[in-house]
Amino acid sequence: MRYYSTNHKAPTASLAEAVVNGLAGDRGLYMPERIVPLPEEFFTNMAQMTFADIACTVADAFFGDDIEQGELHRIVRDTLAFDCPVVPVTDSIYSLELFHGPTLAFKDVGARFMARLLRHFSKADNGETVNVLVATSGDTGSAVANGFLGVEGIHVYVLYPKGKVSKIQECQFTTLGHNITAIEVDGVFDDCQALVKSAFMDTELNRHMKLTSANSINVARFLPQAFYYFNAYARMKELGKADNLVVCVPSGNFGNITAGLFAREMGLPIKRFIAANNANDVFYQYLQTGNYAPKPSIQTIANAMDVGDPSNFARILELYGHDHAAIKAVICGATYSDDSIRETMKTCHDSFGYVLDPHGACAFRALSEGLADDENGVFLETAHPAKFKETVENAIGQKIGIPARLAEFMKGEKQSVQLGKDFCGFKSFLMSE
Which residues does the record list as N6-(pyridoxal phosphate)lysine (modified residue) (predicted)? Predict the structure, then answer.
């Protein structure tokens, strides 16, 4: 499989080149040249298959041309050392719980897969250290840092906006040390993301050190997230609830929903998607008007979705030939204020006994308001509610427990480098490393 740039001004790349480079030379995002449809019998038999077996089949379609099958399946099974169950909330709405991994967030799947894939490719290289740059608005940093912790030959730099991630999220990547460096940027997530993109385009910096990204701009981060969409369908099929299936995704940088759209293009029978936004509604406005107008992000209680210029929008455009009508035919949108998110967390807890995190609350509400009588809905509960303990407790009026894994992170000592949002300062720091 070859990978091309969404800007169409860079040479195509192999999977190894796309993973190690992260971003194409023309600043575009890599896209696979083709999407391999899966056979009908796979979908017929999915309900009898395990999550890992389903994921191995999907991985073969994505990556089978580039990695020996035994090694690819080992990477997949090692990645999925935890379940992503489907849990009923109402008669027609189900939660796909993606918080059962090491850092209790959906990004554990993509981050663990990428760490193992990058290690596989770097072993075949000349032994030069690979430096992973990752911008985070919350959960990406912890998932990537823990996915790569202790991996020989790889150093990770996590850039995060000062004061704009939860304390628990911050503890998950600032207390690790070893091959993980946390960089506290005096700005917003979009500033962190801009620094990462600028670093890739700086010739002097790239001569000094080998750089790659672990954000969802990297194909090895976002594509494996398709695994759990297939698993969700299989589990709903097992329950007899897979007909007219609608999937709602809390959306920030849009890598997660893009993986779901790829799954649909491979034949997964999802009727339509809902992209649930917080107050950062750039994509929602695009759906209404056909005009994409990025703007500075707004801080909300659903902080992982605080993105004003989602990178993966370029992939969605590419997937549907820049056709606004074609995109609207597959995806509709919803947007919610902080007050609405709080209200939804309380209503869901009081009425159904289910505790939502702020991001899942956006998706649950969008399904509650947008699901037709003949449809079944799955929303992505992307992080454990305890990662937003104070926000959730204030909303539902009840204490929630902290899982032991989270509590352990909070015992560590914060280690971070503080920088401004100008690229010169960031470059100087990396050049001194």
Answer: 107
Strand partners, 318: none
Provide φ and ψ at 309, rounded to 5°.
Answer: -150, 75
DSSP strand pairing (210-213 vs 180-185): unpaired
| Separation of alpha carbons 282 and 288, rounded Å | 10
Q: How confident is the model at residue 405 (pLDDT cuts 50, 70, 90)?
A: confident
Residue 275 neighbours by CB distance under 10 Å:
27
The two three-digit tokens of residue 286, written as one number: 């695009």
In angstroms, rounded to a whole number, what is the distance separating the alpha carbons of residues 170 and 173?
6
Range 313-317 contact pairs with CB under 8 angstroms and sequence separation of 24 or more: 313/254, 313/282, 313/283, 313/286, 314/6, 314/28, 314/29, 315/6, 315/29, 315/31, 315/222, 315/254, 315/258, 316/254, 316/257, 316/258, 316/261, 317/6
Q: What is the pLDDT of residues 95-110, one digit of tens each?
A: 999 999 988 999 899 9
**Architecture of the domain delimited by 83-104+222-400:** 3-Layer(aba) Sandwich (3.40)
In the numeric block, the tokens 């037709």 are attached to 372
Distance CA 213, CA 136 (A): 11
Tell me the CA distances in angstroms from 75 to 72, 160, 263, one per residue in order. Answer: 5, 28, 20
**What kind and span of H or E run contains 5?**
strand 3-5
What is the C-alpha to C-alpha distance for residues 372 and 401, in angstroms, rounded to an integer? 35
| pLDDT tens string 125-152 | 566 788 999 998 777 888 889 888 988 8
